[in-house]
Design brief:
215 residues; elongated; 7% strand; mainly alpha; Arc Repressor Mutant, subunit A
Length: 215
């Protein structure tokens, strides 16, 4: 290969890093080559989306997977792709949900939670939490999730989801009320609540995290 071709090759090459849990948690569950290829394609597309500032969804649609698999592997036709996806969902190497995207319901596949990485350790993907613990994200819910991610500390969001799941209260309305209560009363001991007068008009904006609650 000439130096010019090598230079051109390096300019066009892009890299996607897979977390070590992909190999320690997912790969051992995969039994067929087609499933391995499909999961690998899905991981590539999903992790590329995570590089975007505000991805619409955390997963990859069936249409996107079909386009990539057909382009990269002649062995994976539509029937093989469907079978591989069904196996991946059964084995837990991919998660499946049906989302309303641009007024059209589409099959969406996402990675299990340990597979997600973030460029900043202090951020979480609230959309992934919702899809994995509650289900389909509607446009209205999507806007509320974006707002909650701006308003509340990431640890609160994760713990609110855990509390709702533990109590089998899998609804965004319940989770939102948990976050609102923590913001107004104080999350741990209620110390902020004790410092709030009942008729104080600013009771929801006092305390350590008062700046997170809008008037």
């Amino acid at each position: 290969m000439t130096e010019q071709k090598l230079s051109s090759f390096h300019r066009k090459t892009e890299f996607v890093s897979l977390p070590d849990t992909f190999f320690t948690k997912l790969v051992p569950k995969i039994q067929e080559l087609a499933e391995f290829k499909v999961v690998l394609y899905a991981a590539y597309l999903i992790l590329k989306k995570q590089e975007q500032p505000h991805p619409d969804i955390t997963g990859v649609t069936y249409k996107e997977l079909k386009a990539v698999s057909c382009r990269l592997s002649a062995e994976i036709d539509e029937e093989t792709l469907r079978q591989a996806l069904d196996s991946a969902v059964e084995h837990g190497t991919l998660l499946h949900s049906t989302l309303n995207i641009n007024s059209e319901f589409e099959d969406v596949y996402s990675l299990p939670a340990p597979m997600y990485r973030s460029r900043q350790p202090s951020t979480i993907n609230i959309f992934a939490l919702y899809e994995q613990n509650i289900g389909m994200i509607t446009p209205i819910i999507a806007e509320e999730l974006k707002e909650a991610q701006k308003l509340y500390p990431h640890e609160w969001v994760e713990e609110a989801f855990k509390e709702a799941v533990t109590l089998n209260k899998r609804s965004w309305k319940y989770i939102a009320r948990i976050l609102e209560r923590w913001a107004s009363e104080g999350k741990e001991s209620g110390e902020y609540k004790r410092n709030i007068k009942k008729d104080d008009p600013d009771k929801y904006i006092k305390g350590k995290y008062g700046h997170l609650v809008q008037r």
